[in-house]
Amino acid sequence: MRLAICGTEGPIADGFLEQLETAGVSVTALAAFATEPAEDASFRYDGKTVRVQPLADADYTEFDLLVVFELLEALSDVADAANSAGCHLIDVVGQGASDGRVVVPELMGDERVDYPVFWTLPSPVVSALAPVLGGLLEGNRISSLSALVCESASSLGESGTRQLAAETARLMNGQGIEGDGVQLAFNLIPGIPQNADYCVRSLEDLLGTQFERASVESLQVPLFYGQTIQLKVALEADFQLSHALELWRKSGIHLVENNKKFSPVSLAEDDRIHLLPMPAQDAANRTVSLWVLADNVRKGAVVNTIKLMEILIKSSI
Question: Model pTM?
Fold first, then answer.
């Protein structure tokens, strides 16, 4: 695969390059771009130095795939130019801002891609929830869902992890917090995600259904990485948990049987979605309560991008 990336700064791009070297994906050529690269910007990959060039200089006929880690105002134009030249494009951090087809690899099955595509990854919440909800939908319908998303500092980007580290160090040394911003360390901050409506719409589109009622709320927690979601789903008909468990296993979801082992500290840097099912809460066996855990940086962005690359290679590259 002849690969180009746009945007080389931040934990997602770093994690992708690190994972790429060990993923077994054959990269015959690698180029790097940025909208406004710093002078002499470069990085090391596979023992070689890769220079970061201006995106305006990119010739998309030279690449099979462009992976975008940078927020681009003209992303749709870039995608059109790349696709017209036969180059696929994956928007990793668009979070609903782009016009690409929103995809979650676990829901794509054996799909083949024989034409230039413009894919965009959804928010990490959607990436984690869609395969889980898919395991409940076979032969049933979701009437309502409620999700409480426990967000780690990494959901705020690199600045969030730096802020949490600095605040934790100061507080542990008996010093106060500087500035007027919201304290992350040793604190819980409830709220509603700005992209809550987008999350619900994306889930409905991906699963081919509509929810009668849906709510997504958030809780900022003092963890560096990972994302834990408390999910409660009401179904229209009775369901068999054993059948759902089998579907989840087949899709690669890690089922945690002991709640003492369901820990964002120990599991967050794992490449899988982790699921802790709770006992049914009503006599009709139609209400499901689950805990879902996935690393918002590693799984929600890096691993899913690698999986999409593998799909492209099997299909047409």
Answer: 0.89
